[in-house]
Amino acid sequence: MFIDINCAQEKKYNQNTYGDYFLSRRYPDTGTLIAVLSDGLGSGIKANILATMTATMLLKFVEAGADIKTACEVIMNSLPVCQVRKISYSTFSVAHCSEDGEVRIVEEGNPQFVYISDGVVVEPEFTVIDSDTFKNRHMHIYKLQLKLGDRLIFCSDGVTQAGLGSPDLKLGLRRSGLIKYLLEKIKENPDVSSSELSKFVVRAALNTEPDRKAKDDTSCCVIYYREPRRALIFTGPPYHQEKDSEYAHEFFNSKAKKAICGGTTANLISRELNIPVRCNNVRSVGKLPAVSQMDGVDLVTEGILTLTKTVEYLENGFNESEKNAAYDLMQFLLSSDCIEFMVGAKLNQAHYDPNLPIEIEIRKNIIKKMAKILEDKYIKRVTVRYI
Length: 387
Description:
Blueprint: E1 2-10, E2 20-27, E3 32-40, H1 44-63, H2 68-78, E4 90-98, E5 102-108, E6 114-117, E7 120-122, E8 127-130, E9 138-145, E10 151-155, H3 157-160, H4 174-188, H5 194-207, E11 218-226, E12 230-235, H6 244-253, E13 257-261, H7 263-273, E14 278-279, E15 292-294, E16 297-301, H8 304-316, H9 325-334, E17 338-343, H10 363-376, E18 381-386
């Protein structure tokens, strides 16, 4: 099973930064994922610092080998209490997930998460641990076994308290209102992604406010166990030319979505499989050539220039006016979960053309950088194979 995770956030109206902080990391070697959602006291810079510190410390504790329960207990007993409001400086939810469906969850102060299985909300049992340091502070600990199609939804109190004091929702949206929205959305679209569902929850919370402005920092994290969406990208000719046919057939016979990056690579596959490459008559956008078409392949682009620009988009975002081949490749990658690169190791002299921009890196380094961004920023599972 693949763990599809995403978090949508909206900062409090008139604030320059988020008072909630979300942090997650995937560990391919062990098939596990850790996610932390922390809510700092108040809003703005102070809340952001408190939430960031809490989430980062929790993740570092677990990465260092501490049991998740022990790590959370240390944090719970360490966080000070505001002397004015008499409440904790930050609250948190932590999920430690494995690809076989085993999940451990610890919550302290955040709204209780929602567990949906087969379109029904499940209310799992939990253990309570009281703080040794602070009165009225305690953690809820859950141990779950999820199956394909199950979802976990975490949120900050900006969601459950949305609309608080309004004529229709005097007590706010509350957890019951959140559950109603979730069940309706999943019934309407059973395969809704974590990204879409988390954004839907945040929008729904904002829509409960009379002026549609967030009265508090609002965050929603969704974890969804589903079949992985696989993608295969072939770029660069293989080092051993006599293996061209073998790699071309391997690529074409894959059941994953397929993309080719590079004119030489596209011509190689066209030659070995006798499938023509059709050039697009659409004019190039900026300095990037337009995409081409090949039967049985989802996307065909130019090589180094397009890959370099795609890395830039993944790292820094993109301009809406530049919907070019790099944008198409970025969308192809982001719509996939498990991404494999077949990278040809044969030297291409075109990479050293003095007329090309100086910032262009050789193919291997571009792919290496792209893989790291996809893993760290977008929580994708990426493998790179040099051929």
